[in-house]
Amino acid sequence: MPTVGQDRIDGAGAASPTGTAGARAGSGGHRHVGTLYLSLAVVAGAVGGMLAVALQAGLLPHDLLARWGGGDADGMWERIATRHGMMMVFFCALPALFGGFGNWFVPLLTGARDMAFPRLNTLCWLAVGGSFVLALLGLSVVTAPAISIAALLLWCVGMLGMAINMVASVLNMRAPDMRLRDMPVFVWAQALTAMMLVMVVPVLAGALTRAVLDGGDVFARLDTVLRAFAGPEMALLLLPSIGIVSQVVETFCGVPLRGRMQVVGALTVMSVGGGAVWTHDLFNGGPGASDGYHTAAELLVILVPVAMVLCAWVATAMAGRVRASLPMAWAAGCAVLLVAGGVMALLPGGMGDVHAATVFAAVFATFAGFYYWVGKMSGHVAPRLAGYVHFVLTAAGTIVSLMAHQGTLAMAGAMLMGASILVFAGVVAATCMRGRGHIAANYWGEGARTLEWTLPSPVSMERGNRA
């Protein structure tokens, strides 16, 4: 894949008035905002994980649930279970995959100094962070459903602004000699995720507003909207996940991605199709109102592109020589879960399992990105042994959780995932909280060819991506 010279990285911001203005106006730089998104994802993941463990292990007393739920303990249990899923997708997976890694590495990979609108970037994080706080308050029946709806509407505002900023940055801020076709798959995936968000977030906001204006059982309407959003949600999680894994596969196979433009085409189909086929569910009685043809169309716009991407990864592995590494282990786990999700989709009543497999695949891709880029962000490589313990615990918890949704086995899966979160917290503390270290600029070797590997490790947190 063609690359851009180091002089373009140093001068990209000066090459256009937009870049210069962005560098002057930036309140903290794209790397600061990316770090904030990743921090939010860690906090939300810990909260969501604790909720899951507490629910599965029965650690929340009946009296407490009844008090929170206005006397309806069972209803409160269901509400927390639903909000747990929302917490993991809206405030953990998407902020990490899109807001965190997107903010951190899209400018580095395109030779830009910053995002197109730095102040908007910070405001969008504040909106998403504020919506997370409101979502926690919305767990109680005393404050819900008004606060739950307000949280999601504020999330929509933040993510829509972030998506517009991402599209503007990719189109206008990249180095002068980088054509669209030269961009890494990761950048394409981030841009297509942003374009899909521009399509679906206003529709989601409209459906939420309608749920309030129509009156009646707002909680039931909110749950209908969230279930309907599961369709585009899968594409939104898969697009940045595929971008990260493609980057990892290229690096540790030692050869450029095979069928690269076909992968970009597949991601485009997933983005446009995933954003177009779901609105029927929101405004025509919910997910249960879809006919067989509509459900088949939803599956095809996800499964066919995923199959093309998997073929490209396999071809790349066969063309090169796979190096064992921690990021590659997480990437392989993501690929296995995508295959498992495709198989589940063909089974009767398997859509719930497909969604669960997609969420777990996004989790594996997120950790692949963390272990791949953490040295570039902190100047320290993650401890290898602890990283593999984290991987084994997460893989075991994922397998058990996919096998059972209730009972003792489900509790065991939740406990394994809880243990993996604790180990990851230790990895983060050992890697990111001991001061900024200094390692080689390209600590993964010759397989890492994209622009961020020409910059020091860690990349300076000062404004501008200079060596």
N-to-C terminal Cα separation, in Å? 22 Å
Number of strands: 0
Per the CATH scheme, the topology name is Cytochrome C Oxidase, Chain A
What structural category arises from helix and sheet content? mainly alpha
Oligomer: single chain
Main beta sheet? none
Number of domains: 1
**CATH arch. level architecture:** Up-down Bundle
Beta-strand content bin = under 5%
Rg estimate, integer Å: 21 Å
Shape category: globular
Mean pLDDT: 83
Helix-strand topology string? HHHHHHHHHHHHHHHHH
The total count of helices amounts to 17
Low-confidence stretches: 1-28, 285-290
CATH-assigned homologous superfamily: Cytochrome c oxidase-like, subunit I domain
CATH class: Mainly Alpha
Helix fraction by DSSP (H/I, runs of at least 4): over 70%
GO molecular function: cytochrome-c oxidase activity; heme binding; oxidoreductase activity
Organism: Novacetimonas maltaceti
GO cellular component, one term: membrane
Biased composition (Low complexity): 11-24
Write a concise keyword list for the protein shown above.
467 residues; mainly alpha; Cytochrome C Oxidase, Chain A; 17 helices; 73% helix; 0% strand; EC 1.9.3.1; transmembrane helix
Layout of strands and helices, then pairs:
Elements: H1 6-11, H2 17-25, H3 29-56, H4 62-68, H5 73-110, H6 118-137, H7 146-172, H8 185-213, H9 218-228, H10 230-253, H11 260-276, H12 279-283, H13 292-319, H14 326-345, H15 351-378, H16 384-403, H17 407-432
EC number: 1.9.3.1
GO molecular function, one term: heme binding
Enzyme class: oxidoreductase
Protein model, in words:
It is built from 17 helices and no strands. The chain is mainly α and 467 residues long. The protein has a single domain, classed as Cytochrome c oxidase-like, subunit I domain (Cytochrome C Oxidase, Chain A, Up-down Bundle). It has helices spanning 6-11, 17-25, 29-56, 62-68, 73-110, 118-137, 146-172, 185-213, 218-228, 230-253, 260-276, 279-283, 292-319, 326-345, 351-378, 384-403, 407-432. The radius of gyration is 21 Å and the shape is globular.
